[in-house]
Amino acid sequence: MRPSALPFLLVATLLPAQAPAKASKPAPAKAAPKAAPKATPESEAARRTLRETLDAIDSAWFGQPYQGISSVEMQGTLGIALSGALVNQKVDSLSQGAVKGNSQGGAANLRVHGTYFANGDFKTDLAGDFGTILYTRRGNRGFIYSKEQNAYTTRVDLAASDAPLTYMSWFRQTLNDIKAVYIDAPTFQASLAGEDTIDGHAVQRLVFNAPTQGWDAKKREQSLAQSLGFWKRGKLEVAVDKATKQPVRLDFRNDEQGVHTRMDFSYGAGNRLQSVNINNSSRGFEGPGWLRVGYGGDGRMSNVAGELASQDKKVSFAMDLNWSKTRTAADITALPPAGATKRGREEMETQLLVGLAAKIFDLQRAGLNLRAVAIGGK
């Protein structure tokens, strides 16, 4: 679990990985891969500048304050709220006026309390409208327990073999993942889009483009990999401060996922990220948003909060962060409750995903544009 992940995907990332679907017929032969676009001085300059930007982020946003920090305790809330007016409007539309809705609205709330080690050990307690779940792992052992099912499974995913020991290295590894997709791989075509001035910053504009398919309004669910990997294709435009190499504005769109968001960044002392103002044009969730980051005297993030809102919907989160160099694996020791039933991984996973999909479907009917996690393969 990565505390910097998109908050609304928190529920999905804490679920076990899905089992591959069984093929009912042989898969068709794959087409030959397309040749990578030919490198040009312009594309190389764009990739080089993005690499410098990610290095600047590593140094200013993270870097030295996290040296030796091996764990973080995260506690907070995640909420989704839909107004009754939106629900009633959708009922009226679907029934062509034959039925008048009388809804008070819809909501889903989640409380999170977890401790996460940079090396991949963790313990997470989730409670709320998506259920009550305890998920923990130490080394190659752990379990997932569901209070509603009074059941658990001991088959959990293992940590990466190259997991770092500190969060200074963990953040750097995360940024390296972004470099691998946007800079090192041939997926995105890179180009320069000229220079400009934004809020007093002299900026260089960069464009990275990997076209997607169009939006399919009839699609109601997709794999977990598609949900979490939306950023690996699409069109990214970044305006980079020429002096600090920090991002000033970012515009990203993935038409297939219905995502289109612009972010404007502001900074505090030491060029640390202070806030992000969001202009969200994603399908079904057009409206403003924000992200605020607070820091302690040690220079580390102490709290993160954010919100996305439209006329009748709101997704919000608020997390307090407590970093430590001295926590040990003993601090996350846990056992399944006595009397709980042990189940196989696939059975437990299916039940958890059925419950998650049912709650998301309720929100879909109420008007939230969110695709459920597919019960089948990845």
TrEMBL record:
Residues 22-46 are annotated as: Disordered. Residues 22-43 have a biased composition (Low complexity). Keywords: Signal. It comes from the Bacteria. The keyword Signal applies. Residues 1-19 form the signal peptide. This is Porin. It comes from Geothrix limicola.
